[in-house]
Amino acid sequence: MTAAVLVNGISPADPLHALAVEDRGFQYGDGVFESALVTQGRVRLLEQHLRRLALGCERLGIPAPDPAALRSDVQRLSGSAERAVLKIVVSRGIGPRSYRPSRRDRPTRVVALYPAPLPSPTTQLALRWCEMRFGRNARLAGIKHLNRLEQVLAQAEWHDDAIVEGLMLDTEGELVSCTSNNVFLVREGVLVTPDLRFCGVLGIMRAEVLRAAKELSIAVSEEPLWPHDVEAASELFITNSVRGIRSATELGSLRWNAAPVADRLRAALDF
Amino acid sequence: MTAAVLVNGISPADPLHALAVEDRGFQYGDGVFESALVTQGRVRLLEQHLRRLALGCERLGIPAPDPAALRSDVQRLSGSAERAVLKIVVSRGIGPRSYRPSRRDRPTRVVALYPAPLPSPTTQLALRWCEMRFGRNARLAGIKHLNRLEQVLAQAEWHDDAIVEGLMLDTEGELVSCTSNNVFLVREGVLVTPDLRFCGVLGIMRAEVLRAAKELSIAVSEEPLWPHDVEAASELFITNSVRGIRSATELGSLRWNAAPVADRLRAALDF
Lengths: 271, 271
What we know:
2 copies of one chain form a homodimer. Chain A is of the alpha+beta class. The first copy, chain A, is built from 7 helices and 15 strands.
């Protein structure tokens, strides 16, 4: 599975026996995570990932892991990797049988290196609509916490490898994201993306795209979006930190043949 | 922490190193759990707990653990316990870095025995209102899954030991439950409880109370309830499988001095 893993800085003798049963990550999904691309020994957008991780800990009231120790773990695992995915998980740590956090919580820090995924075909990218919805809860919106059953059940809906991703709505019918990508539309020349005020993850690549768009003087808007916005889009692309920017060519009966905005952003980001 | 634990039927050499980093319970909160009271070597309401566990697995598409193996684990840990809490966790098992479940998933089965909690004082029971809300998602409602950040953050709101539990609303303001208890109100002689169609856990003790009430010819109703229903209640009690039925005496400026319905139910259930 993993190429290598460190748990609180230590390589477990047996990776199948690395965590305590009472780790609150396992008991309650009480933690946050990051997934980043590694190329030539360098973690892409590492500072942004570490900032979001710290913000997630703060939002959940989890003591942030020691930055020096975390960076050391990251360097140890990724320093010699040609191309890989680095995953960091921080849980609230081991605790008694109780939802209540303790003031003495000592977070569990897991850093793991995985093989990089195979490149996506660049010419075709088919999406679908998921039945599974995101529940709305502004208190948990934006951060990359470990309560991910909604995405798990959404991805369980299809087994057709030709479908790369699924678009997900929230329970009120608003567009949120894909299962593990953010989504951008082009509407009359404006780049629009869901504002994620109630659910979803504020992706690192999403932020990079918004920043790059401003530098390129492309008008951008973060706002509530709905399925009819997707149907009206002249272009649709999806983003995450491992795969970068990928343009959709197909969604149900919709087809997109050109992606000039995504092409400009991809060139600008060089990801 | 635990008095004893079995992971897939095996007592780990070191309980601090029992689970794989890649267990989907840890990665995504992808699983379900049960907490039951053990007295004199017997798990109270065991059949009901096993049924809910199996239903939760079915709802999440997790292969249910082998019933004979699970019962054997339960018997091994609880058979000689005077008074304890038995916890069962079933996750979807170890998987690759992907939300997508696999058809070859082999669930992880954890059975653990914990010390029984100290008895609650029976004369006073103060509740509070939580700021934290439950998000609505009917697809996840009712089952006792491992995505429990909402309860964790709700319990983090107070540190006053005099407050036993907190009442939680959903994001639309409907009453759902406490953080780890269901809630019942008495309104003009009728026993009412939230219907939990959008969120919350269908508690084993909740079902026992509803069943007992019918046997006692107490009128019952499962329906949407709101804070004004709490304010109008002549009686309020909370229920779970470890603590049974506990009557509230205090919530903000509200006071309840008698609990005739809870008293009848408690006597009938002998829990």
